[in-house]
Predict the 3D structure of the following.
Amino acid sequence: MTPPLTTAEAWSRLVLKAIDQEYPNKPAVVVTGDADVLPPRAMFPAFHGCFDWHSSVHGHWLLVRLLRLCPEMATAAAVRSTLDRHLSAENLQTEAAFFSRGEHKSFEREAQSQRRKQR
């Protein structure tokens, strides 16, 4: 089902504002030394906005989905530009490198695993 154009535009404006807002931020990362204390945009160049990484990923997903469902929305050009800037090959490689480190392999998956065990 395609959302009304005004709804798609309202959601896209909300997300566009949030995914570029770096602070406040809750990175929830393992710090092993001074070199690990970085601003969110350095740790997560693709998904640094919103309040946390997970919310930023969801925001990006929503923008992609809205573009697919409502490519004629007034915010389409801004959405495409922002996605191109955030989801560049370099930014995604930086994020992949973060997840390849041993102390971060369970990032975002550890909490999900713990919730499943509690059920």
Remarks:
- The helical segments are 5-19, 40-43, 53-69, 76-86, 89-100, 110-118.
- The radius of gyration is 16 Å.
- The chain has six helices and no strands.
